[in-house]
Amino acid sequence: MFSDLGMNDIWILATASLVAASAALVGVFLILRKQALIGDAISHSVLLGIVLAFLLTDSRSLPVMLTGAVLIGLLTAWLSDTLHRVGKLQSDASIGIVFTLFFAVGVILVSLYAGQIDLDQECVLYGEIAFVPFDTIYIGGLEDGTDIGPRAFWGISIVFLIVLISISLGFKRLETIAFHPNLAVSLGINVVFWHYFLMTLVSITTVASFDAVGAILVVALLVIPASSAYLLAKSLKTMLWIAVAYSQAAVLIGYSLAFILDSSISASIAVSAGLLLFITIISLQIKRFYQRTQSIEAAHKAVNE
Amino acid sequence: MKINHPLKKIHALFFGLAISLFSFSAQAQLNIVATTGMIADVTKNIGGKHVKVTKLMGTGVDPHLYKATQGDLRRLTKADIILYNGLHLEGKMQDIFKKLAHKKPVFAVGGKLNHAALIQHGTYPDPHIWFDVSLWQKATQRILEVLQEQDPANKADYQAHAKIYLNKMSELDSWIKQQIQTVPEKQRILITAHDAFSYFGRAYGIKVMGLQGISTAAEFGLQDIKRLKDIIVKNQVKAVFVESSVSPRFIQSLVAGVKAEGHQVAIGGELYSDALGPTGTATGNYLGMVKHNVNTIVNALKQ
Fold this sequence. Notes:
heterodimer; A: mainly alpha; B: alpha/beta; 4-stranded parallel beta sheet
């Protein structure tokens, strides 16, 4: 049945797997900071970034759109955090306020320019993973250059490397900030710097992934594998590993599902990630039930003796 | 079929096995992928037994909201020729097709239409060209050109098929003109869910109004409902129409609104706008679908 698979499938799997790994790594920190939905927020507020970038440069080229999106993503994260700390609002409420405001301003700006240009995130930013293999980079001209593979793959490879290197280098500090924030301050770690550093990673990862695979999948991959890992892991290191493992399993299962059902690839991967989380929760419950039964039996024995 | 690009050779190697296993007459048939049912149907009629046509967007699928599946990737990869509507009907996919055109034969059937023949909305042309049968004949000729170019060996067959089909289209064209004439001139107002029938209206002399704009993704405002309500009441419009690929609730709410003002307007029936009817039924092909639309419109407005 899988005799149909070819190079295109490999490109898609490679791209999806890099997106999944990057999102899972970054997602772990978001879950620990209770900011899981920041990815969803960014997926909406990027509209404003795209529109502003277009209005400032009069160009719809991808680098311009990506820059606008990353900057607005950063601003979303920064403003949400400021509202939370300075404005004393709840963290989820602050995120909700900032992204809806940005999105709404974006919509107004678009409607002012509607009719002349097709400008929304679906159109200029969100990619379709099924078509990743068709959008390739040519070195040395489009007509007779060498085809070096999909643009989305190379883009997300760079982002993955940035995420991986940043987390490895900053691991000790990020760990201390995540679990012992007070200790981190007394140790002289620049908590504010690391916070914005992390938000920059989130912004770059989400925007680059939107470009490669579309929004829903990215939001799902930021939240679900990290949540699954949260249920199982005992330390930051194991949590990162488990999250990445879950994300890769979701990609493989999801792609097979899409192949068998002839369905949307990103939706199938997102569904698989959800199913894996569900199975994890059920098995943990069964395990707990079993352990309790054992201790009850042990107690019975002790009483009878 | 010619193989002229190294990448195509690689694809041919990858998929050669699968094709030879699953298809008995693989050596002769051109594998053509079309985005919409309308294009697929015309291509089948011209290609006959020399082509195997697959469509990406199924029955009832709104092209503006189409989402690709894993199988679509395979279909596009295996295709010898890809045909799409163009004029932004396929949205972001159009960019992919333009890139893909460097690797394999990819053509927009609406891409070579005369600019003057197109209805413009702002700076964008209206993509719903299939509802003006004479305009769709031009798209049909474009498909014929492509088939002849890609498969010169069967040129004579393609031309013969196309001649028959183009004749049927001409007959349909004059039949529609006659049918619309039977509706009193004052009653020739077609109100639907979205602006898919502009070409139809221009070609056959019927005023067309839609609740939504050109793209079904656009929202309509209270102003649009009020404007249409006033037109219905003022012109004593007897019927409005729902579309197969757009949710009927907008038109239903319009009808409810008009009734609240004490005026009677019926839902005249379901029109096929952006997709064909179910395969195997009378509306499952282009000619049948247009005929169904015209009959529905004429019967409802004539009463």
